[in-house]
């Protein structure tokens, strides 16, 4: 779908629902907002109409009908009664930050089966997510790579969609970029920087190993405030980011690039496959600068659509059972698949074995650092 100049009517009653927002109380393990919360905050900052923010746990089923449109960010905490009300209302837009369909939310190394772990392909059933998708006015994906991960899931039936091309950045970020670009080039403190993550999917160990192979011990970003992260990136000559399984967009490489660092990444990173990533810095920056505006243009276009006829309405009891059972069921199916993949009979299963081998080969190619991959 292409962008348009369509706008939401000023009187539209809009809610933004998410498990948490950027101002949520933090924990010692996660002391600062994550990329999803920062992207949501940038979207809300650019909102052309008044938006009511509701945490998933706060949304009452009877509230749903009070809104002309509900934007659903990460909503893992929604209960069966809330989902039932949303499906019946049919006036929601899904804002996809990771892989809503997946039992592991795209953190494929945590799964037991090779199709997830080595093929980076989700095969999870997720009846609750499908109920929301089937009844949605549309879905907004961060990148085309992310959307294709949804399309590979055998249970996914498709939904009207739009692709932003990146995460959303706030005005302060662009002000900081403009200020530093106006100052011109300065000496940078760190030769090469990587970002710590305890999640194997983020590729911290691989990025650090890459640096050490180049004879460099990288500076490691860890437990820093968002503004401190930007300061480090602005003082880094190189930033190495090599995710290993699924990266919907890639906020850090985007920030690093526009703050003047040389970015070394791979095709697992969603933005690295976007056409704008190949543009010169000025044109690429302009594209990303307009992303919050494009988000609301897409929302406005979906707003004009009539409510979709989803699957036949399910009882609250049925949705409750599916909501409770989905994680154990997906885990059991993945474990069963892992056992089958380990069987000596698996190579003789024809299409199934060929599909796994093709997925693994595609993912191995995506893991390789993109050229040029030399430190500067």
Overall 3D geometry?
A: globular
Rg, Cα atoms, Å: 21 Å
Q: What is the first-to-last residue Cα distance?
A: 38 Å
Number of strands: 10
Q: How many domains in all?
A: 2
Characteristic key phrases:
2 domains; 376 residues; 40% helix; 6-stranded parallel beta sheet; alpha/beta; Rossmann fold
Task: Kindly describe this structure.
This protein is α/β, with parallel strands linked by helices and 376 residues long. The chain has two domains: 14-167 and 295-328, 3-Layer(aba) Sandwich (Rossmann fold), CATH 3.40.50; 171-274, 3-Layer(aba) Sandwich (Rossmann fold). Helices cover 40% and strands 11% of the residues. It is built from 13 helices and ten strands. The chain has helices at residues 35-45, 80-89, 114-117, 127-135, 144-152, 171-183, 204-213, 226-234, 251-258, 281-289, 291-303, 316-342, 351-367, and strands spanning 14-18, 51-55, 69-72, 92-96, 138-141, 161-163, 190-195, 219-221, 236-240, 262-264. A six-stranded parallel beta sheet has the order 2-1-3-4-5-6, with helices on both faces. The longest helix has 27 residues, at 316-342. The radius of gyration is 21 Å and the shape is globular. The mean pLDDT is 93. This is Glycosyltransferase. It comes from Lujinxingia vulgaris.
